[in-house]
Amino acid sequence: MDSFPRNYTETTVEIVDITGNSNERIIENGTIKISDLNAGTYFIRVKKDGRIYQEKFVKL
């Protein structure tokens, strides 16, 4: 996910599942915890400086 901003200060991060359910996540030491997610397809959205970055990922 190289397209995301590197400076995560005051950044909103959201994980959205394939059905549209979403929840915000906390970035700790540059890492987003996803261990509690079920296997499936997700989108991660990062909102920073008025821009939205989005990537799809699959948790196995």
Terminal-residue CA separation:
17 Å
Class by SSE composition: mainly beta
- Basic shape: globular
Rg is 11 Å
Measured by DSSP, the beta-strand proportion falls in over 45%
List the strand order in the largest sheet.
2-1-5-6
User: Count of helical segments?
Assistant: 0
- Unreliable sequence segments: none
Q: Helix content range of the residues, please? A: under 10%
**Averaged pLDDT, please?**
82
The counted number of beta strands is 6
Main sheet summary: 4 strands, antiparallel
- What's the number of domains? 1
Give the SSE string.
Answer: EEEEEE
Keywords:
60 residues, 53% strand, mainly beta, 4-stranded antiparallel β-sheet, two-stranded antiparallel sheet
In short:
The chain is mostly beta strands and about 60 residues long. It has one domain. It contains no helices and six strands.
